[in-house]
Amino acid sequence: MKLRWRTSSEMDEEIQAHIDCEVQANLDRGMKPEDARAAALRKFGNTTRAKEQAREADPLFWIESITRDLRYSLRNLSRSPGFTVVAVLSMALGIGANSAIFSMADGLLLRPLDVPRAGQIVGVSATAPQYRFGRFSYSEYTVYRDQSRTLAGLLAEENNSFAIQPEENAQARYVWGKLVSGNFFDVLGVQPKLGRSFQPEEDSPAAGEIAVVISDECWQDKFHSDPRAVGARIKLNDQPAVVVGVMPPGFRGTEGFTIPEVYAPLAATPHVSPSNTLLTDPKRRDLVLFGRLKPGLNVEAAQAEFSGLAERVEKPFPQADRQRTALVQSEIKGRLQADPDDVRLILLLLAIAAMVLLLACANVANLLLGRASARVKEMTIRQSVGAGRGRLISQLLTESAVVAGLGAGAGLLLALGAIRYFASIKVASDFPGGFAARLDLRVLAYTLAAAALAVILSGLWPAICATRVDLVSPTKERAPRRARLWGRHAVVTVQTALAAMLLISASLFVKSFLRARAANPGFRVDHVLTASFDPSLVGYSEQRARAFYQELLEQVRMLPGVRNATLGSHIPMGPGSQWDRVTPIGIETTEPLSVMCDSVEPGYFASMATDVVKGRAFDARDRPGAPGAAIINQELARRFWPNADALGRQIQFGVGKRAAVLEVIGIARNGKYQATIDLPAPYIYVSFPQQFRSNMTLFVQTADDPLSLAPTLRREVQSLAPDVPVYGIHSMRETFDAHGLLASRIMAQMVGATGVIGLLLGVAGLYAVVAFGVARGTREIGIRMALGATSGSVLRKVLTSGLKLAIIGGALGVAAALALTRYLREFLDQVNPQDPAAFVGVSILLLVVTLAACWIPARRASRVDPAITLRYE
Amino acid sequence: MAETDRIQLLQGTLDLLVLQTLLFGPRHGHAIATAIEHTSEDVLLVDHGSLYPALQRLEQAGLIASEWGVSEKKRRARFYKLTRAGRARLTAETGKWQKMVRAVSRILQAKEAS
After folding, report:
1. Which value does ipTM take for this structure?
2. Which of A121, A320, A711, A868 lies 20 to 30 Å (CA to CA) from residue A194?
3. Is some CB atom of chain B closer than 8 A to the CB atom of A41?
4. Per the confidence metrics, is the pTM higher than 0.90?
């Protein structure tokens, strides 16, 4: 079909020409000029109607009708600025909250990898009945990589920390990065912005110098954005290396949160970490695999192939590996399944945002219903002169769309502020990274969808109500019909209920955050400075590293202003954690449990104020060669020996060659190990002299501000071992605030903000209804007062009418919250999800705010002058 | 819904007549209207107002095309002409119409006879 839009001036001209022809014809027939014109017009009939009908035949007619509706809506809205401002603000809050939370969720979890054609990327994990997302050995990887025909490429990676010296003799810097297969960048389809990615020979045993690709962040920070960095000779873990490429800014590879700074080929593993037997030991399963599907092939095809290939790989544990196979999943699906906690958290936040949107829609619907009553006369007139109801509804919906559109625009500005805030959240880590929240097309699309939903939710019902007019009864000002008032009351009740629910969850989360901040997490938080080391990265042997740590402890303990110092391998609530497989001995059926583990120096428990509730802490007896000792927390004791005393029992620590038998010599009080929102988790302490770790953290207990000791500490390390990089110099308080409290704080902020928004919107709705009732009922109030009602009784009546709505809505909200908050239990720390204080407090708050909101219209009502109102009518 | 049926019938008829009139060459709106009236010996009265929606509709359907030109009275006017699709439609519709007329008149005559 031909799409042409004849302009209306063209149509005018054509019709004018027609009439002129007719006039001419009439003149030719001998009519008088004025008669000729009149007859021509008569013959043509209604020109406007002809034009309209002709226009409607045009397929692009709807554009014109929309433009006309839009223009009409804008004119209408600008005529009632009060309504417009409140409605747009409501929508801005409702839509903005959704955009902000979605952008957060998207950055945290949902967004596809930032690589070309991310939909082709699949994750491959090892599965067996005992585990689901296992990793692979190097020999398994090579089989899959070389024999797969469904994948265009299969990459392997392992996280690794590095000490990097940008120049010979420069102080080594500690960075986090990856050992990757040579095809890593080719499979992902992202090339360095400077230099090149790896050549095949660079990931082979024949490789000479270690080739290194660095991130843009590393290039800026460690190479001062020098373009000559490509080709620079550097040292990586004390080995000669050369930088071959610099990745584009923000490249995170397969990571979502952190930005790896250094990529080195897997073939370099024996050089950068001599103890890592990854390449040669088929029992060492540390590799994470990602592949790219060949165009046109799907995950099922790859899965079928990998199930077959899994039969051909080496099985070093004949018993346990009998059912070991490979699971192929789209990358995003694997990510969501691997992080069920994050998914639940995000769903909760999105649900709360949806409630805010619902509340905003209720608010606007409420306002629109009020406008509808005020526009009865207009609608009646327009329908009686022949406007179709469908046209009127679509025109009213256009008005809602304008409101939602303006609201979405303003909401995006709000969201942009929130996104800036999220992106600025610093995680206590020396490594670059953070929430990848940003305003992109995905967020825009989500915003648009939210706005479209808001138009329907807020506009449809009021539009239907507004156009349902009675054409028979005379068009006069009159009190709104009972049904319409009933509708508004229902909307306000829902609004109050939603506001109550939001407020209750907000107060629960804020309370949980405050409790978590004040609570004893099970370790010393104040007056502690931490500093981390890994001497093996600069080539220290175990013996030399032990000596270094011994000397470091002795030196630091003697520093002025230091009360005590100790060592541990895990920073409580810091980024990162270590896990080991622990098996109880003497219980047949129990499988090894993956447990967070901490190798600590004997003085740790006293120095860090971590309670050993039963048995003893480590001491000089637990030295190398002596019987192995372990201290487990109450949770681990409960898991292994629910009905018996764990003290004196034996456990197997680790698996394979490194496994050791340890005796439980103490039970430590449960603490929080990763974040304040953690549920009690099993934890095991082992003795540092017996279980050496190269990567340790020094905990210094200070008399004063711990950070003031940092320069002294740096100097001390410098003089003791100038080649050992120090990293992560923070106070425990910093780490605790920035990392341990992070999730709790973000939840409290987000849910708290939605609670405040909910209160504002809920109260605005209540106020609008009560004020509207007073304005509409002025005549009734006037009559009552003329008949002797006191202003006090009028005041009371209006207040009660508002309170009645608030109480019904509030009660519904409280009941709904009681039913729903138990789903919040896992997100709340040390707070009962049905905390009576929160419920009662919110109810009182709602009542007080309601009273205040009703007070203004109530007072206006009580001051009605009967003489004036009655005369006005 | 007798009302809508009648409108559709009228519309259909007008479309057919417009197409037929254009068979003999391009014409502008007024000429089309007068041609229908003259040819039908003034039996059919064309509502000039409804002519333009019909023209617009036919043009959208691709049955006629239009362009600005100059009329015999030296005035600017929009001329319509039949497209190939319009010609085909006219043939088909004329056949249908004649069939219908024959059928209807047979029925009507039968009724008179009984």
Report:
1. 0.77
2. A121
3. no
4. no
